[in-house]
Write a structure and sequence with these properties.
- It is a single chain.
- By secondary structure, this protein is α+β, with helices and mostly antiparallel strands.
- It has eight helices and eleven strands.
- Strands 1, 2, 3, 4, 5 and 6 form a six-stranded antiparallel β-sheet that branches.
- The longest helix is centred in the middle third of the chain and has 39 residues, at 198-236.
- The protein starts with 10 loop residues before the first strand and ends with a helix.
- The model is unreliable at 275-295 and 299-316 (pLDDT under 50).
Length: 331
Amino acid sequence: MLNDRANVEAIDLEYPRTLGIGDDQQVITIRERLEPDIIQTWRVDSGERLIPYDLTTDEDNGPLSAYPNALGIVPYVIVRHEHDGTAWGRNAFARARTSIDRLNALLSHIGVQIHRHVRAKWFIAASGQAPEDIDMGDLSVAYVDTRGTTGSTTIQPLVAPLDLAGAIAQARMQQELVEDMLPELKATAGNFLSGQSGDTVAELRKPAEDRLALARTNYEDGFERACKIAVSYAILLDIVDLGTGTGTREAADAAYRQGREDFRLNDRPLLGAQSSKEQDATTTQPGQAQPNAAQAVDTTPQTQGQPQRTPRQADDTTAQRAARLLDQIGG
Protein backbone atom coordinates (compact mmCIF):
# COMPACT_ATOMS: atom_id res chain seq x y z
CA MET A 1 0.00 0.00 0.00
CA LEU A 2 1.40 3.41 -0.98
CA ASN A 3 0.73 6.83 0.50
CA ASP A 4 0.43 10.15 -1.35
CA ARG A 5 4.23 10.46 -1.50
CA ALA A 6 4.38 7.10 -3.35
CA ASN A 7 6.13 5.49 -0.38
CA VAL A 8 5.02 2.40 1.49
CA GLU A 9 2.43 2.97 4.20
CA ALA A 10 3.85 0.27 6.48
CA ILE A 11 6.43 -2.51 6.26
CA ASP A 12 7.98 -5.26 8.37
CA LEU A 13 11.73 -5.82 7.99
CA GLU A 14 13.66 -8.84 9.30
CA TYR A 15 17.45 -8.98 9.28
CA PRO A 16 20.43 -10.39 11.26
CA ARG A 17 22.36 -8.25 13.75
CA THR A 18 25.84 -9.21 14.98
CA LEU A 19 26.74 -8.53 18.61
CA GLY A 20 30.14 -8.82 20.26
CA ILE A 21 33.49 -9.75 18.75
CA GLY A 22 35.70 -12.83 18.62
CA ASP A 23 34.56 -15.81 20.70
CA ASP A 24 31.79 -13.70 22.24
CA GLN A 25 30.21 -12.90 18.88
CA GLN A 26 26.58 -13.84 18.36
CA VAL A 27 24.02 -13.17 15.67
CA ILE A 28 20.43 -12.33 16.55
CA THR A 29 17.42 -11.82 14.32
CA ILE A 30 15.73 -8.42 14.39
CA ARG A 31 12.23 -7.65 13.19
CA GLU A 32 11.41 -3.99 12.66
CA ARG A 33 7.97 -2.58 11.91
CA LEU A 34 7.80 0.86 10.31
CA GLU A 35 4.45 2.65 10.40
CA PRO A 36 3.46 6.32 9.97
CA ASP A 37 2.74 6.78 13.69
CA ILE A 38 5.18 4.38 15.38
CA ILE A 39 8.41 2.43 14.83
CA GLN A 40 8.81 -0.83 16.76
CA THR A 41 11.66 -3.32 17.04
CA TRP A 42 11.77 -6.89 18.34
CA ARG A 43 14.30 -9.65 18.79
CA VAL A 44 13.09 -12.96 17.39
CA ASP A 45 14.07 -15.79 19.74
CA SER A 46 14.49 -19.47 18.88
CA GLY A 47 10.82 -20.12 19.51
CA GLU A 48 9.77 -17.35 17.11
CA ARG A 49 8.67 -15.20 20.05
CA LEU A 50 8.92 -11.43 19.55
CA ILE A 51 10.74 -9.71 22.42
CA PRO A 52 10.80 -5.86 22.37
CA TYR A 53 14.37 -4.81 21.60
CA ASP A 54 16.16 -1.44 21.82
CA LEU A 55 18.65 -1.07 18.93
CA THR A 56 20.33 1.94 20.56
CA THR A 57 21.38 -0.02 23.67
CA ASP A 58 21.10 -3.60 22.33
CA GLU A 59 18.93 -4.77 25.20
CA ASP A 60 15.58 -6.46 25.55
CA ASN A 61 12.64 -4.25 26.59
CA GLY A 62 14.74 -1.09 26.25
CA PRO A 63 13.05 2.34 26.29
CA LEU A 64 13.40 2.82 22.50
CA SER A 65 12.09 -0.58 21.43
CA ALA A 66 9.08 1.46 20.33
CA TYR A 67 8.93 5.19 19.68
CA PRO A 68 6.67 7.66 17.83
CA ASN A 69 7.42 8.36 14.17
CA ALA A 70 7.47 12.14 14.45
CA LEU A 71 7.51 12.75 10.68
CA GLY A 72 4.56 10.49 9.93
CA ILE A 73 6.34 8.99 6.89
CA VAL A 74 7.69 5.46 6.60
CA PRO A 75 11.39 5.89 5.72
CA TYR A 76 11.38 3.12 3.14
CA VAL A 77 11.27 3.35 -0.64
CA ILE A 78 10.69 0.48 -3.05
CA VAL A 79 12.80 0.84 -6.20
CA ARG A 80 11.53 -1.24 -9.10
CA HIS A 81 13.56 -2.13 -12.17
CA GLU A 82 10.34 -2.43 -14.15
CA HIS A 83 6.74 -1.90 -13.08
CA ASP A 84 4.35 -4.79 -13.67
CA GLY A 85 1.60 -4.08 -11.16
CA THR A 86 3.10 -6.21 -8.37
CA ALA A 87 4.61 -4.95 -5.12
CA TRP A 88 8.26 -5.51 -6.07
CA GLY A 89 8.09 -5.16 -9.85
CA ARG A 90 9.99 -7.17 -12.45
CA ASN A 91 13.74 -7.68 -12.11
CA ALA A 92 16.36 -7.08 -14.79
CA PHE A 93 16.50 -10.68 -16.05
CA ALA A 94 12.81 -11.64 -15.82
CA ARG A 95 12.37 -11.93 -19.59
CA ALA A 96 15.19 -14.44 -19.86
CA ARG A 97 14.64 -16.35 -16.63
CA THR A 98 13.62 -19.65 -18.28
CA SER A 99 16.70 -19.65 -20.53
CA ILE A 100 18.94 -18.66 -17.62
CA ASP A 101 17.54 -21.54 -15.54
CA ARG A 102 18.23 -23.94 -18.40
CA LEU A 103 21.77 -22.62 -18.80
CA ASN A 104 22.47 -22.93 -15.07
CA ALA A 105 21.05 -26.46 -14.98
CA LEU A 106 23.12 -27.50 -18.00
CA LEU A 107 26.37 -26.07 -16.60
CA SER A 108 25.68 -27.72 -13.23
CA HIS A 109 25.07 -31.05 -14.97
CA ILE A 110 28.32 -30.71 -16.94
CA GLY A 111 30.18 -30.04 -13.70
CA VAL A 112 28.66 -33.11 -12.04
CA GLN A 113 29.55 -35.33 -15.00
CA ILE A 114 33.14 -34.07 -15.09
CA HIS A 115 33.42 -34.78 -11.35
CA ARG A 116 32.12 -38.32 -11.92
CA HIS A 117 34.69 -38.89 -14.67
CA VAL A 118 37.55 -37.66 -12.51
CA ARG A 119 36.47 -39.78 -9.52
CA ALA A 120 35.04 -42.72 -11.42
CA LYS A 121 34.66 -46.21 -10.00
CA TRP A 122 36.73 -48.62 -12.09
CA PHE A 123 35.64 -52.03 -13.39
CA ILE A 124 38.28 -54.71 -13.86
CA ALA A 125 37.55 -58.15 -15.33
CA ALA A 126 40.45 -60.63 -15.48
CA SER A 127 41.20 -64.29 -15.18
CA GLY A 128 42.38 -65.07 -11.70
CA GLN A 129 41.81 -64.24 -8.09
CA ALA A 130 41.48 -60.56 -7.27
CA PRO A 131 44.80 -59.02 -6.24
CA GLU A 132 45.15 -58.16 -2.58
CA ASP A 133 46.12 -54.59 -3.39
CA ILE A 134 45.39 -52.36 -6.37
CA ASP A 135 46.88 -48.88 -6.17
CA MET A 136 44.21 -46.61 -7.71
CA GLY A 137 44.67 -43.77 -5.26
CA ASP A 138 41.39 -42.96 -3.54
CA LEU A 139 39.29 -44.48 -6.36
CA SER A 140 37.22 -47.62 -5.79
CA VAL A 141 37.47 -50.75 -7.93
CA ALA A 142 35.02 -53.52 -8.85
CA TYR A 143 36.84 -56.76 -9.75
CA VAL A 144 35.36 -59.78 -11.58
CA ASP A 145 37.15 -63.11 -11.88
CA THR A 146 36.61 -64.40 -15.45
CA ARG A 147 38.28 -67.81 -15.05
CA GLY A 148 36.35 -70.46 -16.93
CA THR A 149 35.03 -67.93 -19.44
CA THR A 150 36.31 -66.62 -22.68
CA GLY A 151 37.32 -63.04 -23.08
CA SER A 152 40.20 -60.69 -22.53
CA THR A 153 41.09 -58.57 -19.54
CA THR A 154 38.92 -55.44 -19.27
CA ILE A 155 39.64 -52.24 -17.39
CA GLN A 156 37.24 -49.32 -17.76
CA PRO A 157 35.55 -46.58 -15.71
CA LEU A 158 31.91 -47.05 -14.71
CA VAL A 159 30.59 -43.77 -16.12
CA ALA A 160 28.41 -42.80 -19.04
CA PRO A 161 30.19 -41.30 -22.07
CA LEU A 162 30.51 -37.52 -21.81
CA ASP A 163 30.10 -35.44 -24.97
CA LEU A 164 31.85 -32.42 -23.52
CA ALA A 165 32.07 -30.57 -26.84
CA GLY A 166 28.36 -31.06 -27.50
CA ALA A 167 27.44 -29.94 -23.99
CA ILE A 168 29.54 -26.78 -24.34
CA ALA A 169 27.93 -26.02 -27.71
CA GLN A 170 24.48 -26.37 -26.15
CA ALA A 171 25.49 -24.06 -23.29
CA ARG A 172 26.74 -21.43 -25.74
CA MET A 173 23.45 -21.62 -27.64
CA GLN A 174 21.52 -21.02 -24.41
CA GLN A 175 23.83 -18.11 -23.60
CA GLU A 176 23.14 -16.55 -26.99
CA LEU A 177 19.39 -16.88 -26.38
CA VAL A 178 19.81 -15.03 -23.08
CA GLU A 179 21.82 -12.28 -24.78
CA ASP A 180 19.13 -11.88 -27.46
CA MET A 181 16.48 -11.47 -24.76
CA LEU A 182 18.64 -9.02 -22.78
CA PRO A 183 20.23 -6.60 -25.26
CA GLU A 184 21.79 -4.75 -22.33
CA LEU A 185 24.41 -7.52 -22.23
CA LYS A 186 25.52 -6.69 -25.76
CA ALA A 187 25.81 -2.95 -25.22
CA THR A 188 29.48 -3.00 -24.23
CA ALA A 189 30.58 -6.52 -25.19
CA GLY A 190 33.65 -6.42 -27.39
CA ASN A 191 32.73 -9.49 -29.46
CA PHE A 192 29.54 -7.76 -30.64
CA LEU A 193 31.00 -4.29 -31.22
CA SER A 194 34.50 -4.97 -32.51
CA GLY A 195 35.11 -4.05 -36.13
CA GLN A 196 31.88 -2.04 -36.40
CA SER A 197 31.54 1.55 -37.54
CA GLY A 198 30.29 4.24 -35.18
CA ASP A 199 26.84 4.29 -36.81
CA THR A 200 26.54 0.52 -36.60
CA VAL A 201 27.59 0.54 -32.94
CA ALA A 202 24.92 3.16 -32.25
CA GLU A 203 22.29 0.96 -33.92
CA LEU A 204 23.42 -2.11 -31.98
CA ARG A 205 23.19 -0.16 -28.73
CA LYS A 206 19.76 1.33 -29.37
CA PRO A 207 17.69 -1.57 -27.90
CA ALA A 208 19.96 -1.61 -24.84
CA GLU A 209 19.64 2.15 -24.37
CA ASP A 210 15.84 1.91 -24.53
CA ARG A 211 15.82 -0.69 -21.75
CA LEU A 212 18.39 1.18 -19.68
CA ALA A 213 16.52 4.48 -20.05
CA LEU A 214 13.37 2.89 -18.62
CA ALA A 215 15.28 1.31 -15.75
CA ARG A 216 17.14 4.54 -14.99
CA THR A 217 13.86 6.45 -14.81
CA ASN A 218 12.53 3.97 -12.25
CA TYR A 219 15.76 3.97 -10.21
CA GLU A 220 16.03 7.76 -10.19
CA ASP A 221 12.41 8.08 -9.12
CA GLY A 222 13.16 5.99 -6.03
CA PHE A 223 16.41 7.85 -5.40
CA GLU A 224 14.67 11.22 -5.52
CA ARG A 225 11.88 10.07 -3.19
CA ALA A 226 14.44 8.73 -0.71
CA CYS A 227 16.38 12.03 -0.81
CA LYS A 228 13.21 13.97 -0.09
CA ILE A 229 12.43 11.78 2.91
CA ALA A 230 15.98 12.38 4.20
CA VAL A 231 15.59 16.15 3.74
CA SER A 232 12.23 16.08 5.52
CA TYR A 233 13.85 14.35 8.50
CA ALA A 234 16.70 16.89 8.41
CA ILE A 235 14.14 19.71 8.64
CA LEU A 236 12.38 17.92 11.50
CA LEU A 237 15.70 17.55 13.35
CA ASP A 238 16.49 21.27 12.92
CA ILE A 239 19.44 20.56 10.59
CA VAL A 240 18.18 22.17 7.37
CA ASP A 241 15.97 25.21 6.71
CA LEU A 242 14.44 25.51 3.23
CA GLY A 243 12.44 28.59 4.13
CA THR A 244 9.51 26.86 5.85
CA GLY A 245 10.98 26.68 9.32
CA THR A 246 12.59 23.79 11.18
CA GLY A 247 11.97 21.41 14.05
CA THR A 248 8.36 20.53 13.26
CA ARG A 249 6.46 18.09 11.09
CA GLU A 250 4.51 21.02 9.64
CA ALA A 251 7.74 22.68 8.44
CA ALA A 252 8.88 19.45 6.76
CA ASP A 253 5.46 18.88 5.14
CA ALA A 254 5.39 22.46 3.85
CA ALA A 255 8.84 22.10 2.25
CA TYR A 256 7.67 18.96 0.47
CA ARG A 257 4.27 20.35 -0.60
CA GLN A 258 5.78 23.59 -1.91
CA GLY A 259 8.39 21.73 -3.98
CA ARG A 260 11.35 23.08 -2.05
CA GLU A 261 12.82 19.61 -1.70
CA ASP A 262 12.59 19.03 -5.45
CA PHE A 263 15.60 18.43 -7.65
CA ARG A 264 16.26 16.55 -10.85
CA LEU A 265 19.24 14.77 -12.33
CA ASN A 266 20.73 16.11 -15.55
CA ASP A 267 20.83 14.07 -18.74
CA ARG A 268 23.99 12.00 -19.10
CA PRO A 269 25.11 9.01 -21.18
CA LEU A 270 23.28 5.78 -20.48
CA LEU A 271 26.37 3.70 -21.19
CA GLY A 272 29.54 4.55 -19.31
CA ALA A 273 31.82 2.56 -21.62
CA GLN A 274 32.27 4.22 -25.00
CA SER A 275 34.01 3.14 -28.17
CA SER A 276 37.14 5.01 -29.21
CA LYS A 277 35.19 6.81 -31.96
CA GLU A 278 32.53 7.90 -29.47
CA GLN A 279 35.22 9.06 -27.05
CA ASP A 280 36.83 11.13 -29.82
CA ALA A 281 33.47 12.74 -30.57
CA THR A 282 32.87 13.65 -26.91
CA THR A 283 36.38 14.65 -25.88
CA THR A 284 36.40 17.93 -24.01
CA GLN A 285 37.92 20.78 -26.00
CA PRO A 286 40.67 22.99 -24.53
CA GLY A 287 39.21 25.52 -22.11
CA GLN A 288 35.95 23.56 -21.75
CA ALA A 289 34.97 22.55 -18.24
CA GLN A 290 35.36 18.89 -17.42
CA PRO A 291 32.15 17.13 -16.32
CA ASN A 292 32.04 15.64 -12.86
CA ALA A 293 29.58 13.82 -10.64
CA ALA A 294 28.21 17.04 -9.17
CA GLN A 295 27.09 18.19 -12.62
CA ALA A 296 24.69 15.26 -12.74
CA VAL A 297 22.41 17.29 -10.48
CA ASP A 298 20.47 20.27 -11.78
CA THR A 299 20.57 22.97 -9.12
CA THR A 300 18.06 25.18 -10.92
CA PRO A 301 15.28 26.15 -8.47
CA GLN A 302 12.19 24.08 -9.13
CA THR A 303 9.63 26.59 -7.86
CA GLN A 304 9.08 30.28 -8.42
CA GLY A 305 8.63 32.97 -5.81
CA GLN A 306 10.76 31.34 -3.11
CA PRO A 307 12.46 33.68 -0.63
CA GLN A 308 16.16 34.32 -1.12
CA ARG A 309 18.26 32.03 1.03
CA THR A 310 21.25 33.21 3.04
CA PRO A 311 24.67 31.90 1.91
CA ARG A 312 24.59 29.35 4.72
CA GLN A 313 21.16 28.14 3.65
CA ALA A 314 22.24 28.02 0.01
CA ASP A 315 25.05 25.63 0.95
CA ASP A 316 22.45 23.19 2.22
CA THR A 317 20.15 23.00 -0.82
CA THR A 318 18.88 19.54 -1.62
CA ALA A 319 20.60 19.53 -5.00
CA GLN A 320 24.01 20.42 -3.59
CA ARG A 321 23.73 17.80 -0.88
CA ALA A 322 22.81 15.26 -3.53
CA ALA A 323 25.76 16.43 -5.64
CA ARG A 324 28.14 15.87 -2.75
CA LEU A 325 26.63 12.43 -2.21
CA LEU A 326 27.16 11.57 -5.87
CA ASP A 327 30.76 12.78 -5.64
CA GLN A 328 31.34 10.45 -2.69
CA ILE A 329 29.76 7.52 -4.49
CA GLY A 330 31.76 8.18 -7.64
CA GLY A 331 34.96 8.93 -5.77
